Amino acid sequence: MEKVKLLLNGLVRDQSTEILTKSKIKAVASRLNFSESKSSMILLAVSEIITNQLKFSIGAGIIQIWEHKKPYHCLDIFGYDMGPGIKNLSKAMTDGYSTSSTLGHGLGTIMRSSDLFEIYTKSEKKDKKDIWAGTAIWCRFYPEKRPSASSNLKTGIFIRALNDDIYNGDFITFELMPKNLTWLHIDGLGHGKNAHISGQIADKIAISKLKTEDIISTLNKNLYGKRMANGVSISLDNSGNFLYSGYGNVLIKILSQSGSQKSLHLQNKTIGEKYIEVKSYKEKIDQGDIIMTLSDGISENFDLSHYPGLLSRHPQLIAYLLGNLFSRRNDDKSLFLAKYDKE
Known about the structure:
The protein is of the alpha+beta class. It is built from seven helices and 15 strands.
């Protein structure tokens, strides 16, 4: 059922984290049938990220390993720190460039070894409400050859259970096709094994074959008498038009490249409680804009003006960074991003 799974969340304070992370990488790479040369590239990227965090971060850095099963099976490495940031990123990407005040050594190596690579950095906090400055790096590795891009719609996903339990009440599934992206994002009521049942039921719905209102209606029918959930279904085409349907407190945000945010709130009803009439609603986004859905385990009170240039990055890096920075400790947490990108 899991479309994405956190395999390791390591606090980088000394070299022992690198040993543990590399050990995990070797085991996962073997299970996913990565070649020896590709496995070496992943290990090299991990080594460079951790080395730079140890040299330049203020306090500790974080290194994470994520396994994705959709739209293609792959392995992600994500690292971020509370460091000084990189004041001149283009220079820092040049091989051999490094100073005592900027992270730089090995960034070119990380980029070349990865199938997909993205970096975001900011050197200082703007005000007291700004909680982060530092550098975030995302690398993606495919067991086989990197798949060719078949759509101008890009996705990012972040999902973690309360206390990283094996059971998660939040659930996300999506289907990415050349001209359309459809996803279902639910937050099962409660926590743990019982809340997890909502996701198991939702996972059986063939969302690519249904309209958004039919997805929610089917979910309501299938949950009735068993569990209850909040949830939303969205269908986005490759021209920026989208339809959405749902109920409850799963929030929809439209994030614009201009820096503006628009929230779309669902009706305050619960899926699975009783018969509900489901409607679909139309919206449109511009090229470069992002649709985000988030459960209440993610704080919605982030200010994009604190993160200049972040929306120009790949939505997967955005999902990891915002998910880590704005997760609530007392709940399951999840967010999904869809970016209407250039052709």
